TrEMBL record:
It comes from Methylobacterium brachythecii. PANTHER family: AMINO-ACID AMINOTRANSFERASE, AMINODEOXYCHORISMATE LYASE. This is Probable branched-chain-amino-acid aminotransferase. It catalyses: L-leucine + 2-oxoglutarate = 4-methyl-2-oxopentanoate + L-glutamate; L-isoleucine + 2-oxoglutarate = (S)-3-methyl-2-oxopentanoate + L-glutamate; L-valine + 2-oxoglutarate = 3-methyl-2-oxobutanoate + L-glutamate. Keywords: Amino-acid biosynthesis, Aminotransferase, Branched-chain amino acid biosynthesis, Pyridoxal phosphate, Transferase.
Length: 278
């Protein structure tokens, strides 16, 4: 596999950064993930715009103009012969003597690599995913795609230990989002509900596309908070991300949700999203 590190394409085994990198020492950096389908990047402009925003929010100047980011991604997809999977990009504040405040002249570290992954024929989408709810113990700037992911690592591990694929995180009784996805429910009246954007959650790029698709195809959608109880009593639930696209949920905290199989709204949105992504 070929990875990208600070301007160089290298075999993954030779790709390395300093132990003094602030990403490693402080999680002082941000990342982005774009999907690849049929060798092409999905909704990539949105991901690169969010990457630029995350950098601006933490005061790192964007090391590359958009066109250069696209070149790096395209080069990695091509060198790795990637047909379906993900491109991961990370920028940290760089390597410097360990000191909390920003170093004077650190140069941002840029790392990118690809991961092959079955997205379209994902068997989980056929059966539907189980989710568990966990307390959202993260900081208050979840709108930044920070590499500080320990809370999400623990949430996903709790899900795995319960035999579930995703953890929905809860704050003040309401779902914020999935540990690596945006959470949606479909009420018994057929309304799709997802939390409005704020500092409490990541502005999902897949979320935005799904909201646009719902509007285009005449599905009712509300952006509002929804509680754990509402989730348990929903007709359907699903989650969205660059890696899962639209993933139907069939069980919450060990209880069957709705009919216990992927619901019609989630299945329709998954199909619509694939058509959009192609
Ligand atoms: N995660 N919320 C969180 C906390 C996320 O980490 C992600 C994505 C999303 C969905 O965003 P998008 O639709 O733009 O992928 C929401 C990526 C895939 C990851 O960490 O691997």
């Amino acid at each position: 596999r070929t990875a990208y590190v600070n301007g160089q394409y290298l075999p993954l085994e030779q790709a390395a950064v300093s132990v003094m990198d602030r990403g490693f020492l402080f999680a002082d950096g941000i990342y982005e993930v774009s999907a690849v389908l049929g060798g092409r990047l999905v909704d990539n402009a949105g991901h690169l715009a969010r990457l630029a925003r995350s950098l601006a929010e933490i005061g790192i100047s964007n090391p590359h103009p958009i066109e250069e980011w696209v070149r790096i991604e395209t080069e990695l997809v091509s060198r790795n012969g990637l047909d379906e999977g993900l491109v991961y990009m990370q920028v940290t504040r760089g390597a410097a003597e360990r000191d909390f405040s920003f170093p004077k002249d650190a140069v941002p570290t840029v790392v990118a690599f690809t991961q092959a992954k079955t997205i379209r024929a994902n068997p989980l989408a056929e059966t539907g995913a189980k989710v568990v709810t966990v307390p959202d113990i993260r900081w208050q700037r979840r709108d930044i795609k920070s590499v500080a992911l320990l809370a999400q690592v623990l949430a996903k591990q709790a899900a795995a230990e319960a035999g579930a694929a995703e953890a929905f995180m809860v704050e003040d009784g309401a779902i914020t989002e999935g540990s690596s996805s945006t959470a949606f429910i479909v009420t018994r009246e057929g309304t799709i509900v997802t939390r409005p954007l704020s500092n409490a959650l990541l502005p999902g790029i897949t979320r935005r596309a799904v909201i646009a698709l719902a509007a285009e195809f005449g599905l009712t959608l509300e952006e509002r908070l929804f509680s754990v109880e509402e989730l348990h009593g929903a007709a359907e639930a699903f989650y969205t991300s660059a890696s899962a696209f639209v993933m139907p949920v069939v069980s919450v905290d060990g209880e069957t949700l709705g009919e216990g199989r992927p619901g019609p709204v989630a299945r329709r949105l998954r199909e619509l999203y694939f058509t959009f992504a192609e």
